[in-house]
Every structure is written in C-alpha cells, then in structure tokens.
Amino acid sequence: MNSSVATRTLHIAIDHPSAVQSAADHARSLASACEMRGVLPDQAAVLASELASNIVKHARNGALFAHRAPFGAGLDVMAVDTGPGMADVNLSLRDGYSTTRTIGAGLGAARRIATDFAIRSEAGLGTLVHARLAAPDAPPPGASLGALGALCLPAEGEDASGDGYAVAEGRGVRTALVIDGLGHGPEAAMAAQRAERTFLADPATPLADILTALHKALRHTRGAAVAALRIAAGRAEFCGVGNVRAVALSPEGIHHQFNGQAGIVGYTLPAPRSRFVDLSEHTTVAVHTDGIDHRWTQSPTAARLALPPALLAASLLHTHRRRRDDATVLALGPHPGMR
C-alpha cells in the first residue's frame, strides 16, 4: 500500500519583480531538501523563475506554491494568478511567442523542464499551472487511481500548521484523512501529526473505526476536527467530526456537500456515521478545513468546476484562504494524471 502525509507548502507571493529571484532560490533549496540530485535543483530554480516571471509580466495577484510531490520523490510547483487569462494557451506555449516584446521562452521553457505539466487559463479564472519535476526513474505518483491535489499552509505568522492530511491507496481503493487541530501553532500541529501517524498505522479499517482510534490517540492533545474519505469503484464514503467539509463536484456543478458531525475528536466523539455518494467518471471530491471559506460553493464558475484536482486545490487556496487560520485542501479526482 502506498501512502503520503502532509508536507508544508511553500507559498511565495508574486507581487514584485524581485519575487522572481526569491522563487528561484526557494525552489532550488526545496528540491535539495527533497533529495533531488544532479541538475534537478537548478532545473527547479529555472522552472519556478519562468513561472514567476510569467505572472510578473502578464498578471496580478499571483503566487507560487511548491512542495514535495505526493507518493514519491519529486517537486510540485503551482503558479496561480487572477490576471486576464490567455486567449490561446497553445500559442502562448510556443517558443518565441510573446505579448510583451520579450524572447517568449517562459511557459515553453517551463513545459520542457517539467516531467509533467498542466495549464488552464480563462477570463475570470486567470491562469493556473501545475508543473512536476522528478527524477527520470521516479514512478508517477498515484497515477493508477487518478490525480491528487493537496496543499497545506499555516496561518500567517506561524511556522507550523495545525492542519494535516494523509492518503493511503492500494487495490483500487484510496482512503484519505484531513485534520484540523484546534487552534493553530505547535500544539495544534502536534495533534495533526499524531492523527496522521495513527491513521497510517491501519488505513484500511472501516472509517468509523479510524475515527474511534483517532479519538483515543488525541485524548491528551488539543483535539481536532477530522474527516475521513474512502473512494472505490465509483463511490465515496465520508465520515467526519467537526468543521472539515467535503464537496463532490464535476463540470456539471456541485452534487453533494458533507459536513462533519458535531464534536471534537479527542474530547467529545459522537457515534461516527458514514454517508455515501456515487461518483461519475468526471467527479472530483474536495475536502478542506475551515481555513478555506466555504462560501466558494455558492457560485462556482464553470471553469473552476472543470479543473483537475491539483489545480482546483491551488485555486481554492489562493482565492478563498482565510489567512488568520491554517488552511488545507485535498482534492481527489478521476483525472488520469496531468497531460
């Protein structure tokens, strides 16, 4: 069984030309921390630099998110902005094409460097890019069960996030946990990390049993809101306590929303109750803590509903994050890997 736990997401605001060099330096350091060897750290720096430069030249209110890729060695870099979007994405990816009288190497160079690359751009949505850089022999993370997007940021001013997530997959089943430790800071982070470890010790058990085990494990911590999700054979099971939400959506709209039962895992646990929803081949399930404003579901754009999971997570975090709280988004979908 493969598993992955939350890693802190690096967030770089791209609001000034000087941010381009900062993005390059941070990406190089992160690649080295991910034990990427040879020329890969330098390639990560170029990748981040090109994506950041594109935001500075063409957009506004942009950001880069970067972290270790789930389920294996490698680095994910996501660029998000609220600019005007691109009239022709394929044309913009061609070397030599530019609307600002530069050499036109940015997005084309980023796509060549990246192991996998996905881009969406539309008026009203801006431009979102997901670039993964991995060693040539690295396995594609989670490709057998569809794409996964996960981002986790601490509250502003905090180094540690009290949110967390963990994912385990095997034999056509994917089980995920999203945790929101009460409050924020080191004590909330300790609760989230203990929940991750407890979950990964036996992730294949029934979801109600998982919450019961977490309740015992978190008794001497601050406690947490927790949501467990299991996806298999076109069906999702949700079991949660506290204010972690799950939303099933597709290009046709939002189909189901789940809220956790009242309580605090580690303090007051109700009898855990699972709910189920059938999933079409185009459905994505997004699970997020209350560091994401839930009102995004009230008027989602058609462009956002059609995003693959990694870009959906980046879009939600960038545009609906509550900065005074830890924020985590985990999106699981049927998309067969990045194109």
Topology (SSEs and partners):
Blueprint: E1 2-5, E2 10-14, H1 19-33, H2 40-58, E3 62-68, E4 75-80, H3 89-92, H4 106-113, E5 116-122, E6 126-133, E7 148-153, E8 163-170, E9 173-181, H5 186-201, H6 207-217, E10 224-232, E11 235-241, E12 245-250, E13 253-258, E14 275-278, E15 284-288, H7 302-305, H8 309-320, E16 327-332
Antiparallel strand pairs: 1-8, 2-3, 3-4, 4-6, 5-6, 7-16, 8-9, 9-10, 10-11, 11-14, 12-13, 12-15, 15-16
Helix pairs in contact: 1-2, 2-4, 5-6
Task: Write down the overall mean pLDDT.
Answer: 88
Q: List how many beta strands DSSP finds.
A: 16
The oligomeric state of the chains shown is single chain
Q: What composes the largest sheet?
A: 6 strands, antiparallel
End-to-end distance, in Å?
A: 25 Å
For the largest sheet, list the strands in their spatial order: 1-8-9-10-11-14
Shape: globular
Order of helices and strands: EEHHEEHHEEEEEHHEEEEEEHHE
Radius of gyration: 19 Å
**Count of runs of 4 or more consecutive helical residues:** 8
* Contiguous runs where pLDDT drops below 50 for at least 5 residues: 96-104, 335-339
What is the SS-derived class?
A: alpha+beta
Task: State the helicity in percent bands.
Answer: 25-40%
Beta-strand content estimate: 25-35%
Descriptive keywords:
6-stranded antiparallel sheet; alpha+beta; 8 helices; 5-stranded antiparallel sheet; globular
Short description:
This protein has 339 residues and is of the alpha+beta class.
Can you offer a commentary on this structure?
This protein is 26% helix and 30% strand. Strand 8 and strand 9 (173-181) form a beta hairpin. The chain contains eight helices and 16 strands. The chain has a six-stranded antiparallel β-sheet, with helices on one face. It has a five-stranded antiparallel β-sheet with strand order 2-3-4-6-5, sandwiched between helices. It has a five-stranded antiparallel β-sheet with strand order 7-16-15-12-13, covered by helices on one side. The longest helix has 19 residues, at 40-58. The chain starts with a strand and ends in a 7-residue tail after the last strand. Mean pLDDT is 88; it is low at 96-104 and 335-339. The chain is of the alpha+beta class and 339 residues long.
